[in-house]
Design goal:
DNA-binding, Arc Repressor Mutant, subunit A, transcription, disordered C terminus, differentiation, mainly alpha, transcription regulation, TALE_homeobox, single chain, rod-shaped
DNA sequence: ACCTATGATTGCAC
DNA sequence: GTGCAATCATAGGT
């Protein structure tokens, strides 16, 4: 700014352009012979334009010459005035950027997945929860879990190193541009506001690159997750003995086929599966039985007989009288069977 | 290759 | 949190 005010005071010196020591003998000759201010300004402008076509050394020399020129302050102030006017029109275009919802979504997701934010918790916790829900043998889930964690850590590491690289590049580039503009502000009018705007533009550009990084990181996490979930979906049928144990419980508790937490734990232990798998099994069984009782009739009869026989054996062993097989008071409909086990 | 059975997941209601 | 209902995806049988 002080540059500009200084230049304004020099505006009165337009007349003294006769001796233009700008290093071009041709123009000097022309200026000297013509001696007209208008022509002089034209020449100087032409020289300024010609700088871009010259070698660096030549240009430096010419720049220095221009900087030392008596007319420089005057021209500078004129440029300042013009600039002031154009800045007004630019100001309308300039908009303060609101927080991008897209980038906020990505940030939230990366935070939730444990990619950004603190090292512990987040993703590993999510993986642990997922692994816990997965069921299956504990070894399997722990292998999947650690695999998932390792992959997530890899993504996390790449993300952070890339982000750091971008941030470094951004600050380096910003510094470079700012230095360049400061340097240039000696020869052309550049207000701090303009520098600020340029910095903002650079930051916007880099943040759009960052958004791409965030986007691709999110994609990678989603793919990893879906693979992990797919792995969980890979199921194996329970072994025959486990199914038998579960069916026995189900049909002997047909009036109320809702095992308690303790019962579930016991069944899980007996069958070599998790409690949640027991819950899943009962959930599936109840709904499928209810939907098509006819289809399960045979199975129901089979297990009813089995239970009855077992009970009879137990009671015989205990030298006791007959035992009730299935107390059925208003739960799921009991199968129709004769005491000897036939339909 | 197709069909059925079955374990797992998801969305919803309570 | 639990159970229901619908659905997905795979295992296993033909």
């Amino acid at each position: 700014m002080d540059d500009q005010t200084r230049m304004m005071t020099g505006l009165t010196g337009l007349g003294g352009l006769q001796q233009a020591d700008v290093g071009d003998p041709d123009s000097v000759r022309k200026q000297q012979s013509l001696g007209q201010p208008q022509q002089d300004i034209g020449d100087i402008l032409q020289q300024i334009m010609a700088i871009t076509d010259e070698s660096l050394d030549e240009a430096q020399a010419r720049k220095h010459a221009l900087n030392c020129h008596r007319m420089k302050p005057a021209l500078f102030s004129v440029l300042c005035e013009i600039k002031e006017k154009t800045v007004l029109s630019i100001r309308g275009v300039q908009e303060e950027d609101p927080p991008d919802p897209q980038i906020m979504r990505l940030d939230n997701m990366l935070l939730a997945e444990g990619v950004s934010g603190p090292e512990k918790g987040g993703g590993s916790a999510a993986a642990a929860a997922a692994a816990a829900a997965a069921g299956g043998s504990p070894t399997d889930s722990s292998i999947e879990h650690s695999d998932y964690r390792a992959k997530l850590a890899q993504i996390r590491q790449i993300y952070h190193s890339e982000l750091e690289k971008y941030e470094q590049a951004c600050s380096e580039f910003t510094n470079h541009v700012m230095n360049l503009l400061r340097e240039q502000s000696r020869t052309r009018p550049i207000s701090p506001k303009e520098i600020e705007r340029m910095v903002a533009i650079i930051h916007r550009k880099f943040s759009s690159i960052q958004m791409q990084l965030k986007q691709s990181t999110c994609e990678a996490v989603m793919i990893l997750r879906s693979r992990f979930l797919d792995a969980r979906r890979k199921r194996r049928n329970f072994n025959k003995q486990a199914t038998e144990v579960l069916n026995e419980y189900f049909y002997s508790h047909l009036s109320n086929p809702y095992p308690s937490e303790e019962a579930k734990e016991e069944l899980a232990k007996k069958c070599g599966i998790t409690v949640s798998q027991v819950s899943n099994w009962f959930g599936n069984k109840r709904i499928r039985y209810k939907k098509n009782i006819g289809k399960f009739q045979e199975e129901a009869n089979l297990y009813a007989v089995k239970t009855a026989v077992d009970a009879a054996n137990v009671s015989a062993q205990a030298s006791q009288a007959n035992s009730p097989a299935t107390p059925n008071s208003g739960g799921y409909p009991a199968p129709c069977y004769t005491p000897d086990g036939r339909l």
